[in-house]
Write a structure and sequence with these properties.
mainly alpha, 73% helix, 0% strand, elongated
Length: 135
Amino acid sequence: MANSKPLPPVSSSAAPAVDRIAARQAALKVAKARYAALRNVHRALAADLAKFDDAKTTRLINRALRNVQVWESGGIASPYYVRAWRRILLDPANSIPKMLRGHNANALVQNSPFGFVYKEPRYRKELQHGETNAS
């Protein structure tokens, strides 16, 4: 490092670019934490679906399927998400963990038919934890 020279000061014309970069980095940090929290919620949901009684599991799956149907009939979501979530909902306790390891995990958890569970304390706590980690 003996040959290293200090960087020149940032000119005032470059300051807005530096501000934009800093803002973008902060936004990426928040998004990363949010996606991690959403993946954690879905991981917990998959574990819960595996241990819930059949009636409760069926209710949750049917509600998620109705949400997917609304997406499809209303043109609310891309056909990709409709097909993907229908496949996942055939066996969510096993398919959700596999989906979370896939390259489309963030897109799928962001477009989840299980949004209704986010208001339940167990899952809301995960989401709030993610928001806290982003700060």
